Every structure is written in C-alpha cells, then in structure tokens.
Amino acid sequence: MSTGVGMSSCCLSGKVQDGKPTGNVRTIGGLETYVAEPESNSTAQSIIFLVDIFGWTFPNVRLLADSYAKEGFTAYIPDVHNGDSLPIDFLQDVEPPLPERESLSLTAKAASTAKVGATLGPWLVKHREAVSKPIIDGFIREVKKIPGTDKVGTIGFCWGGRYSILSAHSLDPSLAIDAAYACHPSLVAIPADFDPISRPVSFALGDKDSLLGEKEIGQIKDIMEKKKSEDGVQSEIVVYEDQVHGFALRGDWSSEKDKKAMDDAQKQGIEWFKKHLATPKAG
Fold it and tell me: Per the database record, which ranges form the Dienelactone hydrolase domain (predicted)?
C-alpha cells in the first residue's frame, strides 16, 4: 500500500488574520528567522515552525508563534524557502473560501485550477524534498546547538506538515527531535512517510480536507496504532468536523465554528508539546 497524497487549490485558500506579531528577526544557520520568546527567555523548550507555501512572513504563522511563546516555548520560523514563498494574495485571488468556491461556475473553477497548476507545479519542483529537507535538517541542527536548548519540537502546516512528519524519523542525535505536530499535511506518501516515525507525533486533520480523505485518515490511524503497539511510539490523531485543508492556520476568524477549530488546534499543539518537551526536574 503506497498512496501519494498531493497538493491542490485548497492549499491556497483561507484568511489572513489581523494583529501585529511581536517577535524579532535573526539569522540562524544562514536563514532569516522569526523568533518569538517567552517572558523567561528560556530556550529549554523550543519549537521550529515549518511553514506552508506562503512562508515565514505570513502574519498568521507569526501570530501563532507568539501564542506558543506566551505558553513558555521559544518559537522559531525559519525562511526555508529562501525568499521564494508564494504571495499571500493568492489566498483570495486564486482560491476563495469554501462557500465562495462551491458557488463558482464550472468555467471559473476550470480557470482557477489552470492558474493553480501553472503556479504550484514549478514551485513544488523548485522546493522538492531533495532541496528542502537538507535546509530543514540543517536548521534543526543549529537550533539544537543554541545554549540552553534542552528539548526541540517541530510543528508543520500543509507543505511543512510533511516535513514535520519526516523530522520525527531521525535517530541521529544531531537531528533527533523530541515531538512533532503535523497540521493538515500535504504531499505525504502513505505508508512510506509514516512507517519510519520514531518520535511522538500529533496530527490535526479536517474531515473536509480534499487531500486527506476518510480513507487516507483511516490508513494513517492504522499505521500509528500499529507503531504504538509494536514500537511504543506515541501519537494522537484529532479530526476536526467540517474543516478544510489549511484550517489550523488559515481558517476564517469570522466563522464561529472555524475560529473554534483554530483555537482547538492551537490548544492541541500546546498541550502536546507541554507533555513531550517537558524538562525533567532536578532531584
């Protein structure tokens, strides 16, 4: 069983949040990086945010990193696309929110699909795994070297969700993370990307995600349940009702249901990392 789950126009949907990020920008391992720090300035529990195709300057991901910092984590958002993320205006121009998308004519949908293909195809080739994974691995190594860093986790969204899963494979001490959280990952291969998982992983998935349907979610559940029973690998899979691809980062804040799903996904990640990045107390 080997299922490749790709990327589609829904990777480009969603809303841009209001608010002003409060972190700062530094260069870490040669990458420009947004850093959100807790009041304690402790790096003991650090989280690396692996972005979607809209990149590290997208306001939503920076505001989310700020929220994690308020919970005691140091959050890093590296520019793993090296300045080549897709423009944020694609959120509305290329793929409108779900209610609008469903009301589009067949002609409008065909035009949108063609534009998405022309945009995403070349971008995905340029940022394929052979190029992107070494960049991400290098950044993980650099964060693990930062003084005071004890435990490191990764959180990924859409394109970055798969790399969060891949980061949970490594047993190399210089690369090994302590926990991962993947929100609506795209481009995943089932079972190839899941069988090698050796670290605790949490998943936030939407039941209206066109990239991970009921069948694929069932396959992932079966794999992770087997890994828990045979290898003791901890995991959790939370499926959010009526949520589309991208909901945890790009949901509609004006919708009470979508806002609650985003809040719950944030809480899911924070609780997961508080459990798995906790540092042992002396004595």
Answer: 31-276
Q: How many domains does the chain have?
A: 1
How far apart CA 251 and CA 260 sit, in angstroms, is 10
Q: Which domain holds residue 141?
A: 3-276
> Which tokens in the block code for residue 157?
């969204």
Query: Model pTM?
Result: 0.89
Per-residue pLDDT reduced to its tens digit, 183-226:
999 999 999 999 999 999 999 999 988 888 899 999 999 999 99
| CATH assignment of the domain containing 192 | 3.40.50.1820
Contact status, residue 42 vs residue 74, Cβ threshold 8 Å: yes
Distance between CA atoms of 183 and 12, rounded to whole angstroms?
15
Q: Give the tens place of pLDDT for each residue, 162-179.
A: 999 999 999 999 999 999
Q: Is residue 281 in a domain?
A: no
**Residue at 34 is within a domain:** yes
